[in-house]
Design goal:
Number of helices: 0
Shape: globular
Distance between the termini: 39 Å
Strand content: over 45%
Structural class: mainly beta
Number of strands: 11
Largest sheet: 7 strands, mixed
Helix content: under 10%
Radius of gyration: 13 Å
């Protein structure tokens, strides 16, 4: 079992930045999990945002956030981050982090069903 707690969400103006954090508390070693960030806007499906391998050496992004969002992790702190820059109103959503013990693979990291553990989410609202 992996417990994930997101933080760092809030209200920001368009063009601004936020950094989300996801802290893991679990019996399973955090560093043995690939991690992902997803988001869900009102009335829409939950969609992939970014993923990172166990070591942090490999990352993947949705096309919509490439160049503006950065995923990273600190295994010593059991935490994964999502730095979000140049935010737009369409980035408004509840952001979720997710974990899986499966090895990172670009063939599946964007699929919700690939992840076994989810946090409760943190709201990000971008005003125009």
């Amino acid at each position: 079992q992996v417990q994930l707690v997101e933080s760092g969400g809030g209200l920001v103006q368009a063009g601004g930045s936020l950094r989300l954090s996801c802290a893991a508390a679990s019996g399973r070693t955090f560093s043995s999990c690939a991690m992902g960030w997803f988001r869900q806007a009102p009335g829409k499906e939950r969609e992939f945002v970014a993923a990172i391998s166990r070591s942090g050496g490999s990352t993947g992004y949705a096309e919509s956030v490439k160049g503006t969002f950065t995923i990273s992790r600190d295994n010593a702190k059991n935490t994964v981050y999502l730095q979000m820059n140049s935010l737009k109103p369409e980035d408004t959503a509840v952001y979720y982090c997710a974990a899986t013990p499966a090895p990172y693979d670009s063939r599946w990291y964007g699929r919700r069903e690939s992840y076994d553990y989810w946090g409760q989410g943190t709201q990000v609202t971008v005003s125009s």
